[in-house]
Fold these 2 entries.
Entry 1:
Amino acid sequence: MKEISVKTSSFESRIFIGGNSLERIPALTKTQKNFVITDENIYALYPDLFEKYFSNTPVFVMKAGEENKNIQTLSAILDKMLESGLNRTSRVFSIGGGVVGDVAGLSASLFMRGISLVQIPTTLLSQIDSSVGGKTAVNHGGVKNSIGSFYQPSEVLIAPAFLKTLPARELKCGIGELVKYAALDSEIFHSLLKNQDTLKTLDLAYFTHLISACVELKAQVVAGDEKENGERKSLNIGHTTGHAIELAFGLSHGESVLYGMAFETMIAIHKGVCERAYGERLLAIIKRALRIEPVAQPNLKAVETFAKKAKSDKKNVNSEEIVMAVARAEGKWTLLSLPYEEYEQELRFAIEQFSL
Ligand code: GLY
């Protein structure tokens, strides 16, 4: 089992990666009242896990899916926490993917002004990215993650074996975030250039290696910039356009980020911000990931149907200027800011040139 820690100015999160990371649960549940938040898929797939570790613990089973990451679910969780008699010393265990982790994290951060939180991520996306770093949120008012907090989990227990039951669409969704890390880190970039076909099959040893590499990078970034004033914006590569696509077409987050990264890399090359030779190698990785089944084919040529949604991105300083985190050279990134009209024009041009 590998241990990585994320040290911020006020907190230290411990992250454990490996088959036996779940063996930490008995020690973590021993002394205080506990509460589990999970979703219906995980609850149905892993009855033994709940029986073994949480037989006397209240469990809130939420509906799966991004559309349930909302204030109604948050409110129902807080009601059940109160009904269950939790107090300020209680601990929340979040068992699930990014949606469960985001709502559970926000619930833990709000209840009694904040109680202990342990993240147990079960999807590739949550294991490499969302369970680490303390972002919590629900979607509201048609804006993704518009209500949330920074709230660090005390521990993150990553068991890659959960990936064995992950549907192909969800695995591909995580691969979207994995490719984002390739744009930020030379080792992951070269590893994916060389071994990307391995991603189509679930080689757990290789995935465990990649999860550790991503978490190590994220731990460094978050330690230096917990509240996303600078370096942490790098973790949003492809996300400005990606979130717009996700909101407009209902594609998975990771697949939307892959499309977002492709178009933003093309824009960055066109604007002379990204080195062409490097950008084309990165585009090759992105396209190979996009070709992994199942492939969604939204009508991206109808740019006007989704581009405007980029105006609500949290990186923007005002809604007429679109800010994107883009790759510029191997392991290097920068912010690229364009007036909205120019962004839409560049996006249209990139999409016209794009083929899978
Ligand atoms: N998922 C990006 C971040 O945690 O900052």
Note: The pocket of glycine is lined by residues 129-130, 133, 135, 232, 235 (CB under 6 Å).
Entry 2:
Amino acid sequence: MQVTTTPAQHIPVITIDGPSASGKGTVAQLVADKLGFAYLDSGALYRVVAFAAQQNNIAWDDANAVAECAKTLHIKFKNGQVLLNDHDISEEIRTELMGKGASQVAVHAPVRAALIDLQHSFHQAPGLVADGRDMGTVIFPSAPLKIFLTASTETRAERRYQQLLGKNQPANYENILQDLQERDARDKGRASAPLVMAENAILLETDNLGITDAVNTVLNAYKNVTTN
Ligand code: DC
């Protein structure tokens, strides 16, 4: 496994990894807000790469071409928006297609390598909450608190289904379930930085846990880490 060191070891990082639609993004953002920490949505970076590759007619399975494309991108997060070369593409990257594309481009080691420095650049005072698949295992391996947030595939599919209905987008539960199963298999099965729970992570299963309880569990765990 690729291991990277992070600068500024004394600045705290909370990593929240887990599968698609587990609710980790919402929990991570709320924890960051509560602590006044920055928030890194690493999945958005892979979505931007998939989007940019598509715009440039680069096939998602062309590892080298996608990696070269990734190196040229100027990605910024500003006021909850995701900017690519100063254009707001927040909506475009949130589609099911870009989720699938992100999972496909994320398989390639050179693509992952192209995004490492950008991810490390979020590690700034007073602290960072980083959400993704390999935050605790590869990107911030010495984070003092690592959470692995998950839920059953059925619960996650139901949440995604309700989310799409809420946005008046077409939604089919069976298709969503199948897509999630495929993405889980790809994210867990890849050779480079697969989705896996870090050895020293806390497992948080959210099938029967609301967002507020999940956020409070993370905040309490962080309090324990900082006072011990
Ligand atoms: O969290 P998300 O659904 O936006 O992520 C989209 C895809 O990006 C996910 O299926 C796998 C990939 N990803 C990754 O490989 N590593 C990360 N740290 C974050 C996301």
Note: Strands lie at 13-17, 38-41, 75-78, 81-84, 87-88, 128-132, 145-150, 202-205.
